[in-house]
Specification:
The chain has two domains: about 5-135, 3-Layer(aba) Sandwich (Rossmann fold); about 150-215, Arc Repressor Mutant, subunit A, CATH 1.10.10. It is built from ten helices and six strands. It has helices at about 15-25, 40-50, 65-75, 90-100, 110-120, 135-150, 160-170, 175-180, 185-200, 205-210; strands spanning about 5-10, 30-35, 55, 80-85, 105, 125-130. Strands 2-1-3-4-5-6 form a six-stranded parallel β-sheet, sandwiched between helices. Helix 4 (about 90-100) links the parallel strand 4 (about 80-85) and strand 5. Helix 7 packs across helix 9 (about 185-200) and helix 8 crosses helix 9 (about 185-200).
């Protein structure tokens, strides 16, 4: 029997929350454990219920979807995220991908995509509304180009690559250490190794490289 996927949804429009419940719970393997009307409530409910997936609107009162995801990261709360939004602009899509959001669904395709997106991200796979596939291809193309320009990226260990992405988010060594449960000194050692492998000279060069190429990492 397929295990039940626990979900929290957050949207400031009651009719959207009601519609989501009807669409999602029509699938017996999915269960909405709570619903929020703003970003702050979403964080509290996610922290309380620890769902498998959180379906978040980007535009919400008090805290928007991006702020919610960042705060969950600061609190080391692990939950897969699906953004359900009206925004199809590349800038917003890329910003969501930079944050590590695995699911991105446009509201006008929610009826066909929302259940599939939840099941995909719950199993560790990304899901993007098909109408946004060109944006995803652009992102992959830029990532491929960066790897050709900087072959040292292939030499990074999984931990080093994770640290590089956190540096791109402008997190300090102390913040990175707290997030990865390692010491500040260990983070500094990893930073030194990343610089050596990428042939970057000094911490400022590392930060500049990471921030500049944030969307390709």
């Amino acid at each position: 029997m397929e295990s039940e996927i626990k979900i929290i949804t957050a949207d400031d429009h009651p009719i959207v929350r009601q519609g989501l419940r009807l669409m999602i719970e029509a699938d017996k393997s999915l269960l909405i454990v709570a619903q929020a009307g703003d970003g702050e409530a979403a964080i509290s409910l996610i922290e309380e219920h620890r769902p498998d997936v959180a379906v978040l609107d980007i535009d919400m009162p008090k805290m928007d979807g991006f702020e919610v995801v960042r705060e969950l990261g600061r609190r080391n709360i692990e939950v897969e995220i699906v953004f359900l939004t009206m925004h199809g602009e590349e800038e917003i899509f890329q910003a969501a991908m930079d944050l590590g959001v695995k699911g991105y669904v446009l509201k006008d395709s929610a009826t066909t995509d929302i259940v599939s997106s939840i099941k995909a991200v719950a199993s560790g796979r990304p899901f993007i509304s098909p109408s946004l596939s060109a944006l995803l291809l652009n992102r992959r193309r830029r990532a491929d180009e960066l790897e050709k320009e900087q072959p040292g990226l292939h030499l990074l260990s999984p931990t080093e690559f994770k640290i590089l992405k956190l540096i791109a988010e402008e997190q300090t060594s102390k913040e990175i250490g707290e997030k990865l449960f390692i010491s500040h000194r260990t983070v500094e050692t990893h930073r030194t190794n990343i610089c050596r492998k990428l042939e970057l000279h000094g911490s400022l060069a590392l930060v500049k490289f990471a921030v500049t190429h944030k969307s390709e990492l």
